[in-house]
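Record type: monomer structure entry
Structure origin: computed from sequence
Chain ID: A
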Amino acid sequence: MAQSSAVQFPRMNGTAQTRKPFFTEQRITAILFLIPALIIFLVFVIWPIFMSFRYSVAHWDGIKPIDEAPFVGFQNYQRLLEDPIFWKALRNNIVVVIWSLLSQIPIAMGLAILLTGKIKGSAFFRTLYFAPLVLSDVLVGTIWNWFFNPTIGLANSFLRSIGAPGGAWLGDPNLALICVLFVATWKFLGFYVVIYIAAIQGIPEELYEAAQIDGASGLQLHRFITIPLLSTTSRTNALLIIVGSLKFFDLVWTLTQGGPSNGSELMATYMFKQAFSSQDWSYGSTLAFALFFIAFGAAMIFTLLTRNRERTA
């Protein structure tokens, strides 16, 4: 009689795998550390944005409680779309963004490459380029306001010394924004230089040594190694420039206050005038929420476009 073969079942390991609980000790610790920052973010960022939108859909006088203010719906936003000064301020903001991207990123990258090379006095020049960033915007605006003064300013004094006519500079609607762009580049360029320097110092030296063995020149090293490896840093700097240029306020307010004739008007300066000069709190809140929406939308679009390009590259 043939013996039936015994069915063998796989032996169960004594350490059977179990699903790991979500709230582990490490995650609970991380959540506890994140709660204070989350509370600060909600109170000082999210809540003001929500209240700004609430003020924008009401006729609020800035004194009575917002609950007693009559609801006006989207009348302020309709007024915004029909406001020519708002569109002029938005256009000026776009000019600031484009100028900052086209000037600060390539100049900062070039200076960072030079300052990370083996040149004498590189530490001094790093400090020199970063020094304007340490100064407050109000102080910088005051200094350059004196520099562009049509009567006693250094700009016109120099032009007169060489026999050239002076200009109105900040008093000229066609030159005011150009002066603001020049001062902004001088003020914030050092910030992006420092970021690029830190990124360049993180590139492994082995890459340059291998390329030099293959006969690559100095320009080829930066063209095929440094600049491509700085693409992530360039995207970060571009995102900071876009958001910062759209929220630009302190420096232009100290220099021109958006004038003359709204020649250097930006969305932030126009919002400040409507809220605190004209006491039109509801329309000022509308401009503030529109500024947030435009800056947030521009940042999201830029992030999505660059991320998709990075994936397809």
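Annotation 1: Confidence is low (pLDDT under 50) at residues 1-5.
Annotation 2: The chain has one domain: 84-312.
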